[in-house]
Amino acid sequence: NSTRVPGLDPWFPAVNFDFLLQTGGKRAKQEAIAQAQSELARLSVVTSAWQVRSDLRRALADTAIAGRRAELLRAQADMQRELLHLFEQRLAAGSIAATELAATRAASLRADAAAADSATQAALARSRISATIGVPESAVRNVKFSPLPTPVEMTPSQLGNARREALRSRADIL
Length: 174
Known about the structure:
mainly alpha, 4 helices, 70% helix, elongated
C-alpha cells in the first residue's frame, strides 16, 4: 500500500458511514420523475402490445387473402389444363390449328405459374404470423385460421364517436 500513513497498520479495519441528506425539495422532484418514468414504461408496454396486435392482424389478413387467392388460382389452373386437354383433342381431330393450341398452352402455363406464386405468397404470409407472435414456423404450419370478421356497419355519428374515442385513448397521447 503506497498511500499508507506512517504509524497506521494498512490492515486495520475501518468503518465508514454514508448518509444522503436531501435538501431543497429534491425528494418530491425525484418522486415525480420516478412516477413519470413509471408511466412512460407502462405506456411503452401498451404501445408495444398494440403494435404486435396490429402486425398480427395484418399478417392474419394477408394469410386469409393469400390463401383464398391461391385456391382461386389453383382452380383456374385446373380449368386451363382441362381446356388445354380439350384443345389437344380438337387438334388431334383436325378442327383447330396448332397456333390456337399454342395460345391455350401458354395461358395454361401462366395460370400454373400464378398458382405457384400465390402458394409461395401464402407460405410467406404464414411465416409472418409465426414471426409476429415469436414461434417457429412449424408451430403454425398446420393451424387453420378462421377468416377475419367483417367490419360492423356504423352510422356516421357512431363512426365519429369511435374515431374521437380512439384518438383520445392513444398511448402516445396519454
